[in-house]
Write a structure and sequence with these properties.
With about 150 residues, the protein is mainly alpha-helical. The protein has one domain. It contains seven helices and three strands. Helix 2 runs antiparallel to helix 6, helix 4 packs across helix 6 and helix 6 runs antiparallel to helix 7.
Length: about 150
């Protein structure tokens, strides 16, 4: 087992595969409509504690339905419920693709003398890109919430 993880790119590839499998499992086991969520064929009856306590929706209200609708191909309906949901799914898919590309890159670069410097630059780019994308998703989430509350 140790030998598998010592290969160049193994960690990135494993991480990409785990996130991808989680998305696939959520899609298979869960579904949603504009008003309800089902998990393993059973409807979940839960609501937002923040909304129940304070009478206004929280920034994440509708996020679960939005993510599930996006995973099932209903991005337009998901966007109406909470526009951050499709962005979260897109971000997760881009993360998986990036990890697979990083794995491939690390395996190819392992044979060159510049492997460490190039790999660090690629990782830094991934971190910066992920941070910018995360800030974008957060801004969309907050803008949607402010629009609902006010």
């Amino acid at each position: 087992m140790k030998k598998i993880f010592s290969q160049p790119g193994a960690t990135a590839g494993l991480l990409g595969a785990v996130v991808f499998l989680q998305l696939a499992a959520v899609r298979v086991l869960s579904s949603a409509t504009g008003d309800a969520i089902w998990f393993a064929g059973r409807e979940l009856h839960w609501g937002c504690a923040f909304k129940q306590q304070f009478g206004v929706p929280c920034p994440n209200c509708g996020m679960t339905r939005s993510v599930l609708l996006t995973l099932h191909g209903h991005a337009g309906q998901a966007w109406e419920i909470n526009p951050a949901g499709p962005l979260v799914v897109l971000g997760a898919v881009m993360f998986c693709a990036t990890m697979f590309l990083l794995m491939r890159y690390q395996r190819q670069q392992h044979q060159t003398t510049f492997a460490d410097a190039n790999a660090q630059a690629v990782k830094r780019g991934i971190i910066i890109g992920s941070s910018v994308y995360g800030a974008l998703v957060f801004a969309v989430l907050m803008a949607h919430w402010v629009g609902q509350v006010f």
